[in-house]
Amino acid sequence: MINVYLDDFRPCPQGFVLARNVEECIELLKNYDVNILSLDHDLGFGQPTGYDLVVQMVENGYYANEIYLHSSSASGRMSMYRLLQAHKPDHVVVYEHPMPAEVLKRVSTGGS
């Protein structure tokens, strides 16, 4: 099981696998069980967004156990949150905010 961090700019937190774009993130979701997924919305000019990723996740049933939305785009974050909340399986927890420090610390020390 892995943890995935989608962002085109920010550094990847320790204990996470970095995806710089939607395509990389989809490949990870398709090929691995993902415990924690942290999503950005804006992924570079002219590039698919975090919302585009969430649409593909919903269409294909790709989910993580916990999903955090760390985007600085309030409208993008809310759009992703609403779509995920409307379609996620019951066991998936979606947070409309970045990962708290205790989650980052737990993952960086090898906890899940």
CATH architecture assignment name: 3-Layer(aba) Sandwich
Structural class: alpha/beta
Total of DSSP H or I helical runs spanning 4+ residues: 4
Number of strands: 5
Q: What is the radius of gyration? A: 13 Å
The main sheet comes to: 5 strands, parallel
Q: What's the CATH C level? A: Alpha Beta
Question: How much β-strand is present in the residues?
Answer: 15-25%
Q: How are the strands ordered across the major sheet?
A: 2-1-3-4-5
> Residue share in helices?
25-40%
The named CATH superfamily = Response regulator
Mean pLDDT: 96
Total separate domains: 1
- Could you tell me how far the N terminus lies from the C terminus, measured between alpha carbons in angstroms? 9 Å
Low-confidence stretches: none
Overall 3D shape: globular
Organism: Insulibacter thermoxylanivorax
InterPro entries: cREC_REC (IPR046909)
Protein name: Cyclic-phosphate processing Receiver domain-containing protein
Domain Cyclic-phosphate processing Receiver: 2-85
